[in-house]
Amino acid sequence: MQKELRHRLRVEPYPYQREGIEYGLDKKRLIIGDEPGLGKTLQSIGIVDTANAYPCLVICPSSLKINWQREFEKFTDKSALVLDNSVRTTWPYLLKMGMHHVAIVNYESLRKYFVWDIKGGKSFRLKDVVFCPQIRMFRSVIIDESHRVKDPSAQQTIFTKGITTGKEWIILLSGTPVVNRPEDLVAQLSIMGRLQEFGGRTKFMADYCTDPKDKKAEPAVPLSVLSNQLYANCMIRREKAKVLPQLPDKTRVDLYVDISNAPEYNLAAADLAEYLRQYTECTDWEIRRKMRMEALVRFMTLRQLATLGKVAQAVDFIRTFLDSGKKLIVFCSLHEVVDALCKAFPRAVTVTGRDSASSKQVAVDSFQNNPDVQLIVCSIKAAGVGLTLTASSNVAFIELPWTFADCQQCEDRAHRIGQKDNVTCYYLLGRGTIDHTIYSLIHMKKSIAAEIMNSDDEIPTDEMYFDQLVASFLNQAEHGNMQDGREKDSGVP
To answer: Are 42 and 17 in contact (CB under 8 A)?
Structure first.
């Protein structure tokens, strides 16, 4: 059956991904509940593209909008449009004329783009919402991290339900469709138009749900029956351990996010570009040497601005990931970033240069052994070597090292003996920033050794490496590639 799947994707899906696409083509309205790192995105795109179910609307967390755009344009020949203020009024025309085939919006903006009016007060129901008629043009809707719409009374859930009503193709993606209790499924089944297949809301609650205050209470119908019914009707879910032979042992996924300080960053980037042009034209060796040192400082400043601009999106990404119930290792360097993450996630533990040796060990032990400690925030230098963090198979970089060797060292905190799962490494890259330059360079020049780094100030002092950095930065600045941020990643398709 797998061999019979005819698709137009630019990559060949793994066998289990083909199975997921075939399941989706058969069911049309479904949940893909695969564990993180198994390529739910590709499968949903494969369903939509094989069915030619365009225009398609993608609803996702804010931190994943650009990634969805890149994934659609990497895997298919279709153009994707991220909805923002620049297309607030024109997006229907752009889709209708075929200039784009996919629209991407975050949960918080559903009201902004798709709701004309809400009758009544703060508390309202679906019948009170007046949607813009343009939502009818969408043939398919993909809802990423669908557990975000598990609360039937929440505004985002109501808007999502209204947008999807009557759609032929509705694909929910979540590694944890049931976050806490079976009732988490009610809203998601309703959005798919499948709640009646389970007897409707009243019967579902009576059969499978219990009083949360009574921890010993058993549901009227065993949850195994619910599970069997889900798999038969509308859900497919695979675990990493079951499909390990089909996967690489380590996957890198680059996620481009918008930065919050774009005006400040762009000003500094333009200033650096002009300075580097002067540097490249200088023929006096002594002056050139002094300019190089100044340029290194400016590179560091720009890198820091890019990192600080990602914090809000990083918090959104981490929160979304932790909702899956999985543990996550986060790498960065700036104290401001560490502090911001610790404020957003009070239960996180840290391994940084500011922590004592004993507190570092306590943090590692807690992360490794305590199921309630989901997040560890690590400094690239303080935690990049010597630590074992195999309690998680997921690593995220908010800040980039300067070399591929340092990337590997950090990744290998999870990817080492004792790790039972495939490791997925997420690189959060600021769109239109120096992140693109550094990321491209370190992965093109994998042979660049760690010893070219000055361990004290984390500045690349090797002249050849610096010149490559300058050339790459100027090239991307002049050709606008940095603004694009859609080069190929090395992740699971």
So the answer is: yes
Q: How far apart are CA 467 and CA 296, in angstroms?
A: 11
Nearest to 40 by CA among 66, 60, 57: 60
The architecture that CATH gives domain 250-262+305-484 is 3-Layer(aba) Sandwich (3.40)
Q: What pTM was computed for the model?
A: 0.70
Whether 368 and 400 have beta carbons less than 8 Å apart is answered as: no
Q: Where are the domains of the chain?
A: 2-246, 250-262+305-484
Alpha carbon separation from 359 to 256, 350, 351, 363, 411 (Å, rounded) = 33, 9, 8, 6, 22
* DSSP assignment string, 175-234: S-S-SSSTTHHHHHHHHTT-GGGGTHHHHHHHHH---TT-TT---SS-HHHHHHHHHHHT
Q: What is the pLDDT of residues 424-455, one digit of tens each?
A: 999 999 999 999 888 888 876 554 433 333 33
Structural class in CATH, domain 2-246: alpha beta
Q: Name the nearest CA neighbour of 239 among 337, 326, 117, 297.
A: 326
